[in-house]
Design the sequence.
């Protein structure tokens, strides 16, 4: 069912050795989060939307740099500051 607070939908996927969960998710139009035993999948239409958005969005260097700095910091790296 759909969760109104987050718009997530829980789907039960029937799978077996001859038809693993990722294959079944792809048949349902979703991209699995992992090649084996995925716990999350994203609708291909959402991925297409985001891909198109990134092609048309105006560049924001500040947001890009802050995102990279935060990501690398979480990985244990420290960028030299000015």
Sequence:
């Amino acid at each position: 069912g759909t969760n109104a607070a987050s718009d997530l939908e829980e789907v039960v996927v029937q799978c077996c050795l001859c038809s693993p969960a990722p294959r079944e998710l792809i048949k349902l139009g979703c991209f699995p989060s992992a090649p084996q035993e995925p716990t999350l999948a994203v609708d291909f239409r959402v991925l297409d939307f985001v891909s198109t958005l990134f092609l048309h969005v105006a560049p924001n260097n500040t947001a890009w740099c802050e995102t990279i700095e935060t990501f690398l910091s979480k990985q244990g790296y420290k960028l030299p500051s000015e």
Notes: The mean pLDDT is 86. Residues 40 and 52 are 22 Å apart (CA to CA). The longest strand covers residues 30-32. Strands lie at 2-3, 8-9, 30-32, 41-43.
